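Long-time lurker. I teach an intro course on protein structure, and each term I like to show students one example going from raw sequence to a predicted 3D structure in token notation. This year I'd like something fresh instead of my usual example. Would anyone be willing to generate the tokens for the chain below so I can use it in lecture? Attribution to the forum is fine with me.
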Amino acid sequence: MEYEEARQRIFYHSAFAHFDGTSEAHGSSIVNTLLDAKTGGYTPDLSQAVTDLITCLESVNRYWNGDTPSSGMPSDHRQPDRNVTYAMAAILSTGIECFLAWLGDAVIDGGRQTESWIDSGF
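-- Reply from a regular --
Happy to contribute to a lecture. Here you go:
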């Protein structure tokens, strides 16, 4: 996967508008899936979306760091794209928000939801 495609797919998963003006979808957006599950009161299936996000992150990492990801490159080589960084922050903060909401529901509900969320990989 090329960097630009990975970048756009990360934007999609964060529910950010595409910066190139497209609206092409690549499966379920992580943020939208989490928010739908939060408001709908069900356990989301994130396996496909998370697999796609990891593939995107691998591509972005290779673009930023070269053929040996995270081996370290000179600081003048490439700087991380701020928009990708913001998109990842949105994905992570939404995940934390939904997890905390679920955790509060689980405590109120006597912990009955614990296994389903943990088993789902969330």
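Some talking points for your students: The chain has five helices and no strands. Helices lie at 3-14, 30-40, 47-65, 82-108, 114-119.
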